[in-house]
Amino acid sequence: MDLAIMGTGTVGSSVAELAADYGHRVTGMANVASAAIDPTGIDVKAALDRQNIEGEAALGDADPDAVLDADYDALVEVTPVTLGDAQPGFGHVRAALERDRHVVLANKGPMAERFADVRDLERASEGEVRFEATVAGAIPVLSTIEDYSPATIQAARGVLNGTANFILSRMAAEGLGYDHVLAEAQDLGVAETDPAFDVEGTDAALKCVILANVLAECERTYTLDDATVEGIKSVPGSALDLASEDGRTIRLIGEVVDGEVRVGPRLVPEHSELAVTGTTNIVQLDTDNAGRLNLSGRGAGGPETASAILADVERLPN
Amino acid sequence: MSDAPDGLRSYTVRLELSDEPGELLRTLEPIANNGGNLLSIFHERGNLTPRGRIPVEVDLEAAPSRFEEIVDALREAGVNVIQAGQERYSEEVTVLLVGHLVETDLSDTLSQLQERNGAVVDLALTAPEGSEDVSSARLRLKTESGAVSSTLDAVRSVAAEKDLHVVEPLAPGGEA
User: Fold this and answer.
1) Domain total of chain B
2) In this structure, are A32 and A113 located in the same domain?
3) Which residue positions are annotated as catalytic (chain A) (predicted)?
4) Set A130, A157, A170, A207: catalytic member
5) Which of A97, A249, A299, B77 could be A121's S-S partner, Cβ–Cβ 3.0 to 4.6 Å?
């Protein structure tokens, strides 16, 4: 398949680099400053080298928006997450669907904030929308739900943010305070310089909202406003100590149960499957006929997330 | 009161048994024969009562009208009933509270919880930075069968009034 990639950060670059291994060709790629377009296939390595050395404007000679009108079978939307109207990601999705092209997203914004709009556009289009990479990176959560059928799944819950989980599990293991562990996580590159999106629970909440939208099968749609969200900044080391004395620990858990979306620090048994450590993510699905499924693995990272995007590309009709 | 169907409520009965074969079975029969539904049996083999007997705690569900009959049947069968019906709690829930627990009057917090729903059966408090700073408390609450979510609502509302954070357990059904 021919792919156009909107966004050339960690994930977009990985998709571009790995596409050929999966038998695909990159015919367009864009960042905010410039774009490379070649209907016979871009020399990905050369373009990304130029971007890395000379800056974003050196990716290519074309205008970023021109990629949307170029030749491709599927648009890969991996620009940064925006809330509210989810622009410009949503506009990219619309442009591709209006041209009857497929769309694969890792950008959570459109699927969390404008799910109904995206589905409406998809219905009017020959193109299909897939978004496995928006929830828990490499872990095949949405395709599992699709395989089992959303109607047979009663609840979904899990640890969906590696940064918050790294901080909580280090605090518990080392008896260190929040600020200390956050600084360490920033040094290691696990946490962003501005960690708010992760530690305030917003990132996990967006993933839960997407899960809720998928489970509701368009009978109702959810946005971030429908979620009850609390972060981990208020959890002191002493709370983790008290939990541990009782054989429990604290994790930032996202839950979709009975139409409610909640994210917050929760007490979980120390030996529960949900008590993953470090940057591991886990999603638990309570199914009608197969009991409880635990899906765990790497919830973030360039090649990890790219693998979910490329798996989605495989699932698209030709 | 309990949300259980058919007006069933949960009761805890404390008994003491002599350490003889068949004694436990002899005790459970009057419960089952009088419409009681056994929920759990806690047989404290390691402990002996001052009279040298073994304490046993039995949680059961029964219609309120049948409960007196069950207790009478137990006594008729010669079982020593130490306590009956005073505890109507069958589920437990553990939460953490974080914040200025001491300055916001912890004992008032606990009695408010007791009043609204559930009994605090265990409390652990830690205030590593001194009582004037943020401290954490672990509370174990007993509640009626099926009433965990209303107990959590009570915890949330008391916490909100005092600007405390609650670390809750998972939603019902999610306990791993």
Assistant:
1) 2
2) yes
3) 207 (proton donor)
4) A207
5) A97
Statement to judge: residues A7 and A123 lie in one domain: yes
Domain limits at B119?
Answer: 91-167
Q: Are A232 and A168 in contact (CB under 8 A)?
A: yes
The residue of chain A nearest to residue B135, with distances taken between CA atoms, is: A238
Q: At residue B4, does pLDDT exceed 50?
A: no
User: Is the pLDDT assigned to residue B175 strictly greater than 70?
Assistant: no
Does any domain span residue B45?
Answer: yes
pLDDT of the residue at B3 = 43
Q: Rounded to a whole number, what is the distance in Å from the CA of A310 to chain B's nearest CA?
A: 32
Q: Are A268 and A306 in the same domain?
A: no
* Tokens 């007006």 found at: B7
What is the rounded average pLDDT of the residues A137-158? 96
B135, B138, B173: residue with CB nearest A246: B138
* Best CA proximity match to B97, nearest among B86, B84, B116, B113: B113
- Which alpha helices (DSSP H) does chain A contain, by range? 10-19, 44-54, 89-98, 108-113, 115-123, 141-148, 162-174, 178-188, 196-199, 202-216, 237-245, 302-315
Active site residue A233: no
**Residue A115 pLDDT more than 70?**
yes
Reported pTM: 0.82
Q: Which residues of A touch B131 (CB under 8 A)?
A: none
Q: How confident is the model at residue B115 (pLDDT cuts 50, 70, 90)?
A: confident
Note whether residue B172 is domain-resident. no
**Cβ-defined contact of A274 to B96 (cutoff 8 Å):** no
**Same-domain status, B106 and B45:** no
Q: What value does the mean pLDDT take over residues A97-115? A: 98
Does the bond joining A88 to the residue before it have cis omega, within 30 degrees of 0?
Answer: yes
The predicted model gives B114-119 an average pLDDT of 75
Domain end position, chosen among B66, B84, B102: B84
Report CA-CA distances (Å) from A137 to A122, A158, A203, A298, B38: 23, 13, 12, 6, 46
Q: Are residues B100 and B57 in the same domain?
A: no
**Could you tell me if residue B174 is inside a domain?**
no
Domain contains B176? no
Q: Provide residues of A within 8 Å CB-CB of chain B.
A: 154-155, 157, 230, 234-239, 241-243, 245-246, 248, 250, 253, 255, 257-258, 260, 262, 264-269, 272-274, 284, 286
CATH code of the domain containing A182? 3.30.360.10
Quote the number of domains for chain A: 2
pLDDT of residue B22: 83
Enumerate the residues of chain A whose CB falls inside 8 A of the CB of residue B130. none
**Binding site feature residues of A for NADPH:** 108
Q: A-chain residues within 8 Å CB-CB of B141?
A: none
Q: Do A109 and A14 share a structural domain?
A: yes
Round to whole Å and give the CA distance between A132 and A104: 8
